[in-house]
Specification:
This protein is about 40% helix and about 15% strand. It is α/β, with parallel strands linked by helices. Strands 1-7-6-5-4-2-3 form a seven-stranded mixed sheet, with helices on both faces. It starts with 7 loop residues before the first helix and ends with a helix. Bound molecules: pyridoxal-5'-phosphate.
Length: about 375
């Protein structure tokens, strides 16, 4: 085999160890064994115990790492356990600089748990204000936690700018790349040290698994993450690794369709009389459209909008939709709608929601792979019903 790096779509199918050399199988077996037999006291087989390493998990990890341009990955039980694994890299009482409006589960972990148990302290800043980031970095700052685009308003972070600063100041960087998937954004190529995903979203892609993964840019971090994963044990089981690897096989075609659909939906919504505002990085009206073109392949498959009207109007919209389903998640092949105010951000006070720009007339769409004409028709009818 030549050493020439393969293109992304080819890597989704062939990168890593996506076949079993031993038995000729075109897809690696789901190895459920918790233990592996040693042939003697001096035998050190590659696999010994599945909390430490497992062939199905390894096949999945090597594929994700190749897609993210990293050196290796650690698959975890969920997105939040992947985040928790990254936080275990920090020493007691470390300080973390965090992107404003970060995923609620990340905020909860940092504030309700790591602050109390590990003495972590945090400063939330808009990472696009690079002077504010520089000012927020202290001698005890060990990590900058990036999320781009953010949920639900799709603010982007200039990843390279933040990583250049972090590197100069000796601070590690990790990005939650869930909303993009490795298809749409490869942050390691922009200088990030660690990439975290909720595999429950685009990587799995079929709303049928819960998982998380951390990809490392270098072997030192990968080695430390593997030890943490072994010590804490929040690993992804073989059945879910199988589903995630199977999901990756179609990542390229799914994301291509979902992003193309999302752009069409966003363009349609932008001129709809019932719509107040649309947020989608792929639209020229998005304030960070130029940045999106520099660091993302497309605008992605999430679109947010404010409709004209109040909560009751949103409810009429949701009830009138026949294809979009009201759900907490995103990233599946089916189109979904989410009401941030009463769902993902429900635990925040109305004041906190106000600061974050979350109003009662805001909804987030996760665009699936259906025919875009049907999606537009569904939205059009529901928007009319909401009036
Ligand atoms: C869903 C999600 C998570 C958490 O992942 P789980 O798999 O639900 O634990 C983290 N970050 C983002 C951006 C998400 O959308």
């Amino acid at each position: 085999m030549s050493d020439k790096p393969r293109n992304f779509a080819t890597r989704t199918i062939h990168a890593g160890e996506q076949s079993s050399v031993a038995d000729n199988a075109i897809f690696p077996a789901i190895v459920t064994s918790s233990s592996f037999i040693k042939r003697g006291l001096d035998d050190n087989p590659e696999y010994a115990y599945s909390r430490v390493s497992n062939p199905t998990r390894h096949a999945y990890e090597t594929c994700v790492a190749a897609l993210e341009e990293g050196v290796g990955a650690v698959a975890c039980a969920s997105g939040v356990s992947a985040t928790a694994t990254v936080l275990e890299l920090l020493s007691k009482d470390a300080h973390v600089v965090v992107m404003n409006g970060v995923y609620g589960g990340t905020f909860r972990l940092l504030e309700d748990y790591r602050g109390r148990t590990s003495g972590l302290t945090t400063t939330y800043v808009d990472l696009n204000d690079i002077e504010a980031v520089a000012a927020a970095i202290r001698p005890d700052t060990q990590l900058i936690w990036i999320e781009s685009p953010t949920n639900p308003l799709l603010h982007l972070v200039d990843i390279k700018a933040v990583c250049d600063l972090a590197r100069a100041r000796g601070v590690m960087t990790c990005i939650d790349n869930t909303f993009c998937s490795p298809w749409n954004q490869q942050p390691i190529t922009l200088g990030v040290d660690l990439v975290m995903h909720s595999a429950s979203k685009y990587i799995g892609g079929h709303s049928d698994l819960t998982g998380g993964v951390v990809v490392a840019a270098n072997h030192e971090l990968l080695g430390r993450l593997r030890k943490i994963s072994m010590a804490v044990g929040a690993i992804q089981g073989p059945f879910d690794c199988y589903l995630a690897l199977r999901g990756l096989k179609t990542l390229d075609v799914r994301m291509e369709r979902q992003s193309a659909n999302a752009l069409r939906v966003a363009q349609f919504l932008e001129q709809h009389p019932q719509v107040e505002q649309v947020y989608y990085p792929g639209l020229e009206s998005h304030p960070q459209h130029a940045l999106s073109k520099r660091q993302m392949r497309t605008g992605g498959a999430v679109v947010a909008l404010r409709i004209k009207g109040d909560r009751a109007a949103v409810n009429r919209l949701v009830e009138a939709l026949s294809i979009f389903v009201l759900a907490d998640s995103l990233g599946g092949v089916e189109s979904m709608i989410n009401h941030s105010w009463s769902m993902s951000h429900n635990s925040l006070s109305p004041e906190q929601k106000g600061v974050m720009g979350i109003s009662e007339n805001l909804v987030r769409l996760s665009i699936g792979i259906e025919d875009y004409r049907d999606l537009i028709e569904d939205l059009d009818a529901a928007l009319k019903a909401s009036a």
